[in-house]
Amino acid sequence: MLTKREELFGGTPDEYLSHKEKYENSTRKAVILFSLLRKIQEENNTDLTNYRNLLSGVLGASISQDGSPFGLHYIMFMPVFMSQADEEQQERWLHRALNCSIIGSYAQTELGHGTFIRGLETTATYDPSTQEFVLHSPTLTSYKWWPGGLGNTANYCIVIAQLYSKGECHGIHSFIVQVRDEDTHMPLPGIKVGEIGVKMGLNAVNNGFIGFENVRIPRTNMLMKHAKILEDGTYVKSKNSKLIYGAMVFVRVVIVFDSVNYLAKAITVATRYSAVRRQSQLKEGEPERQILDYVTQQDKILTAIAGCFAMKMNARMLWDTFNVINDQLHKGNMERLGELHALACCLKAISTSDSSLFTARCRVSCGGHGYMVSSTLPATSALTTASCTYEGDNTVLLLQTARFLLKTWRQIDTGPLTPTVEYLKTVSAPGFSYKWENSIEGIIRGFQIVSMKKISSCLNLMTAKVMSGMSQADAWNTISIQLVSAGESHCRAIVISTFHEDMSKAMRSMSASLAEVMGQLVELYAVYWTLERLGDLLEYTSISGADVVKLRSWYEELLRKIRPNAVGLVDAFDIIDELLQSTLGAYDGRVYERLMEEALKSPLNAEPVNQSFHKYLKPFMQGKL
Ligand SMILES: CCCCCCCC/C=C\CCC/C=C/C(=O)SCCNC(=O)CCNC(=O)[C@H](O)C(C)(C)COP(=O)(O)OP(=O)(O)OC[C@H]1O[C@@H](n2cnc3c(N)ncnc32)[C@H](O)[C@@H]1OP(=O)(O)O
Ligand SMILES: Cc1cc2nc3c(=O)[nH]c(=O)nc-3n(C[C@H](O)[C@H](O)[C@H](O)COP(=O)(O)OP(=O)(O)OC[C@H]3O[C@@H](n4cnc5c(N)ncnc54)[C@H](O)[C@@H]3O)c2cc1C
């Protein structure tokens, strides 16, 4: 009789399963795991604020690097319900979703549209005679495409469609739709649903497609916490049309935490492997050195560790900011919605692009063995690159942040600014002067000045182009590279300052030795990004060549200081081997034995001579083919 642990972590490695077997195996594991989580959930009431704890359990427990067919149920279906469904609808469905007696997905993206959601083609037309909506996919491009779990798993999904009533289009709204029979799991009439095929990664998420042929759903299946359709078809609009976007903000907040978790796995593997792997002699006649002793290896890995700690603290800040503003939204105060959206956009974009960049570096830092699937680095790389796209393409999200920053800059003199942008007032105040200094505070100030000057420059460029006769939209597109750069600079200034401030607070309750190491990580992160963004700093601040020489020495000194604590820092992530699932990163350091053990599991090692020898090779080698 297998133990739960053996059931979850034993059996044929996923990499040797077919696409279909991988899905079936993931579903088998998911029901084991989420039965345990369901028990935990039943003891707690659930609203959006305490929901993230459950979600971090779900994400942390998602034991496959290929994701889980239940992912979207937890990550989007339920949060959207909590933020978009009215009380009666939550009463009717949320408990069933929480105890997994229904499994949901979130169907927004279509074959033809992902970013431009106002261009979605799926329609929901209200029929007052029957008090129903008619859901329809008018074109192939209107088919929903990508929703996780929709292929074979979910029996309900939230569909985002253009709402029509009394001949008028009211834009996109959310609807809950049953897609499969709860007993037979057969697709319901008028519904064409399936799985989209093999992807670069996340191949257990069961991403699907769905098309509707005049499918009728009750009026009360429109999620009506904000906007409503009355029985006679009268449309009652939301207090704020942007509230429909609320769930995307929540998921972006979750994804920042996710990106930290994925990066933590990758750097745990790369750091431990770099301590085990010996290669080349630093000095003739000496034993081969741990590759972690090479400064170029430290440059790849220690900066990733610092980045992981930095983003973890920013994820917490974002979550706290989300809760504060979400409470205000519930009380009808929309004042900071735009700021929250801009912050969630840029932190989602920067956390996922950093995580993708550093994970790829971890992969190459492990040489050939880092290219083995059994190292788990290829899967983590595939995962982190996906996160640069899902829940909003990073470029598009940074443009959203830039849109907010330009709006803020236009109003800079009309009154106080909200917390995440008040630095713009400080560094642009009359009489403010700043001379570059090689210190954490000096670096933060430098990044804030770069951000402010980029925003100001973008607005001036826009104004000049529009004055020259260019349309607003063309002017925006023409300078969009600089707009993205302004969004990134704003975010980097926030990440460094938050890391410094929050870590400084945390260090007060640490031992002196631990505080010293944490302080080194903050400095390493700040100095690394200063060297990475030298062009901006040379353009907008008084940093000099001499400052740069000193910065480089400071950087190399920090690598030297942090090296002895590298393994301890990643051990502190405390990721158990079963979740790490890596031949290179296992706690016991038996890298070579594990590589061989995993290789022997390959079906191609089941017999000494593969059948292709007799069928193909032998006749070929004998000239008979
Ligand atoms: C069990 C374990 C499982 C583990 C599995 C691995 C983990 C996986 C983790 C997560 C899985 C994720 C699954 C993925 C799900 C999805 O991808 S769902 C689909 C997501 N799609 C998007 O994000 C679409 C992106 N596009 C947009 O958001 C918008 O189209 C837009 C880019 C913002 C542009 O829209 P629009 O043209 O309408 O907007 P603008 O004209 O630019 O601005 C209009 C005003 O609206 C404000 N706005 C826009 N968005 C929001 C928002 N989200 N919140 C608040 N306000 C918003 C914008 O600021 C403008 O306001 P203004 O006029 O005042 O300036
Ligand atoms: C693994 C994965 C899981 C997903 N899960 C779901 C899910 O469960 N539910 C769901 O609804 N969706 C899901 N998606 C879809 C995802 O939300 C979209 O892929 C994403 O929103 C990007 O849209 P798109 O793919 O249409 O790319 P596009 O929007 O076509 O972007 C392609 C390129 O065009 C550029 N571009 C687009 N618009 C602009 C603009 N205005 N300005 C400048 N450049 C622009 C982008 O920067 C990008 O470089 C998932 C996607 C992935 C990869």
UniProtKB/TrEMBL annotation:
Keywords: FAD, Fatty acid metabolism, Flavoprotein, Lipid metabolism, Oxidoreductase, Peroxisome. It comes from the Eukaryota. Residues 440-622 form the Acyl-CoA oxidase C-terminal domain. Residues 245-406 form the Acyl-CoA oxidase C-alpha1 domain. GO terms for biological process: fatty acid beta-oxidation using acyl-CoA oxidase; lipid homeostasis. One of its GO terms (molecular function) is FAD binding. The active site is at residue 391. Its cofactor is FAD. FAD binds at residues 109, 148. SUPFAM superfamilies: Acyl-CoA dehydrogenase C-terminal domain-like, Acyl-CoA dehydrogenase NM domain-like. Residues 6-103 form the Acyl-coenzyme A oxidase N-terminal domain. It is found in: Peroxisome. GO terms for cellular component: peroxisome. Pathway: Lipid metabolism; peroxisomal fatty acid beta-oxidation. Its main location: other. Belongs to the acyl-CoA oxidase family. This is Acyl-coenzyme A oxidase. It comes from Spodoptera litura.
